[in-house]
Write a structure and sequence with these properties.
alpha/beta; binds SN-glycerol-3-phosphate
Length: 218
């Protein structure tokens, strides 16, 4: 399973990349706004900056909601760097845009996926990735992990090549469950990735090893 970081924060992207386990980055307009990145030129430069840190796929989301607009924006984004993946919302014109980009050899990430039917449509259109939003389903009392399991089964049975990118990850259990359910990728905030490191018995065991070493070398 690949690890992407879900942020536009360059310091956090660098920190995750330095850990040596980072395979890519996902962003969205809310994450760009959170970092105060405004205006087309600044947004484009920020994507280039991210691509210069991480050697892996970087999802850049279109703002347009009509076919022509998505195509124009997506082509501009894809031309920025070979690692850019055009992120397209799961709407009717979005499916058409994914199909268009697939025919042009431009990779796509279909975002805002909340149901198996949407995942099937995006896979049929040739999306490179689909992003089911696990945490936002949990927020409304659905089990987001059930959707990952269902899509995983459908894609295996149908032989779809589209990769399942579990998004809206909120905690380390979401990451572990995504691996168990067969997600190809998770995209997560840095905090949930780092939380995978923690176990009290590891801390206790290490403290004991160091104390014993110190005693016998005193
Ligand atoms: O990038 C899309 C997704 O990961 C957003 O997550 O926490 O805003 O639901 P969240």
């Amino acid at each position: 399973m690949k690890f992407f970081i879900d942020t536009a924060n360059l310091a956090q992207i660098k920190e995750a990349n330095d850990l040596g386990i980072l395979d890519g980055v996902t962003t969205n307009p809310s994450l760009m706004a959170k970092e105060g990145i405004k205006g087309e030129a600044a947004v484009m430069q920020h994507y280039i900056d991210i691509c210069n840190i991480v050697d892996g796929d970087v999802s850049a989301e279109v703002i347009s909601t009509d076919f022509a607009g998505m195509v124009a924006e997506g082509e501009k984004l894809a031309a920025l760097h070979e690692n850019i993946v055009v992120k397209i919302p799961m709407i009717k014109d979005g499916v058409k845009a994914i199909k268009y980009f697939t025919s042009k050899g431009i990779r796509t990430n279909c975002t805002l996926v909340f149901g198996a039917g949407q995942a099937i449509l995006a896979a049929k259109a040739g999306a490179t990735y689909i992003s089911p939003f696990v945490g936002r389903l949990d927020d409304i009392s659905y089990d987001g992990m059930d959707l990952i399991a269902q899509i995983s089964q459908i894609f295996a049975v149908q032989g779809y090549q589209t990769q399942i990118l579990a998004a809206s990850i909120r905690n380390p259990v979401h990451i572990i469950k995504s691996a168990e359910m067969g997600a190809h990728v998770i995209t997560s905030p840095l905090a949930s990735i780092l939380a995978l490191l923690n176990h009290p018995l590891t801390d206790k065991g290490l403290a004991q090893f160091l104390a014993d070493h110190a005693k016998s070398n005193a």
